[in-house]
Amino acid sequence: MKKVVIFGGGTGISQILKGLALFPLDITAVVSVADDGKSTGKLREELKIPAVGDISKVLMCMSKADKDVINLLNYRFEDNTSLAMHSIKNIILAALLNIKGDFKHAIPVFSKLFNINGRVLPLTEDYVDLIGKTKDGKFIVGESNITKSNTNICKVFYDKKIKINPEVFDAIKKCDLIIFSPGSLLTSILPHIVDKEMVSFLKKSGKEILYISNLVTQPGETDNFKVSDHIKLLNNYLYKNAINIVIANNKEISEEIAKKYKTKEQKDPVLIDKEELKKLNVKLIEDNIFTIENNVIRHDSLKVAYLVFKYLMDGEK
């Protein structure tokens, strides 16, 4: 069975994992722990623990528990209660962290209780904040503040040196492919590769890296970016020609949906620029990889997973 390691955070990686979990793959998901918004932020501050929100979200998208259990775990209390905004899954994972002492021992219990199909690892066990530096030299502290800022961020880093989870290194050694999921480059992907030790390890591993391109740009983050611009930014944090393969959307988004994203969210479709990708020595896998759910553009999790699986299987021929 082929082994894949996928890096990401939040909705982006969760959407892709829904599809990958349907294929005969040994999946390890690596998730950042710098999220400080809503429920996660409150639990981080009150309990002084790493962020549980993105990890619990990823765990649930890989769960084979029945629908009632999943609905229970995803339940959030109403705003007029003392448990306002907290989801059951976050509370349970936070409780397990307190009982077991770290994610290494807490996540396996959570996985056993709720029938998780795959392995989820935190990038680090450290309590850290993500910091963004703007082009005019200002610093924005906290992942949620970076996301909300809509200003031009030129660099992201942690508030202190982190210790990478050794299990992540072990998973990379054994994997057949490394995947960077779609999602915010600044807050979901780059937090994994701002650490020099991680970058050095990825380079020495010699593993192929596949990037699943975003469907639309992010205001203040990737304005006017094409597919190659995303890869150039990732390579700047990694090393020359680090990204080997990209899966990108080649179907035009309807004018109505595109206009809505442009006017309401200042987001534009991410276009493929084949000539630039050739210069970067990146293999392009293009297809219709999006779906519309309640007027929201999402990656087609099954289609993307099929393209990943097909690439892995074609490599055996």
CATH architecture of the largest domain: 3-Layer(aba) Sandwich
Helix-strand pattern: EHEHHHHHEEEHEHEHHEHEHHEEEH
What's the CATH H-level superfamily name of the largest domain? CofD-like domains
Mean pLDDT, to the nearest integer, reads 91
Beta-strand share of residues: 15-25%
Spatial order of strands in the largest sheet: 3-2-1-7-8-9-10
Shape: globular
Strand count: 12
Termini separation comes to: 15 Å
Helix fraction, binned, reads 40-55%
Fill in the keyword field for this structure.
317 residues, alpha/beta, Rossmann fold, 2 domains, seven-stranded parallel β-sheet, three-stranded antiparallel β-sheet, 43% helix, 18% strand
Summarize, please.
With 317 residues, this protein is of the alpha/beta class. Helices cover 43% and strands 18% of the residues. The protein starts with a strand and ends with a helix.
Task: Summarize the structure in words.
- The chain has 317 residues and is of the alpha/beta class.
- It folds into two domains: 2-32 and 123-314, 3-Layer(aba) Sandwich (Rossmann fold), CATH 3.40.50.10680; 35-121, no CATH class.
- 43% of the residues lie in helices and 18% in strands.
- The strands form three sheets. The chain has a seven-stranded parallel beta sheet, sandwiched between helices. The chain has a three-stranded antiparallel beta sheet with strand order 5-4-6. A two-stranded antiparallel ribbon has the order 11-12.
- The longest helix is centred in the C-terminal third of the chain and has 14 residues, at 301-314.
- The radius of gyration is 19 Å and the shape is globular.
- The two termini are 15 Å apart.
- The model has no long low-confidence stretch (mean pLDDT 91).
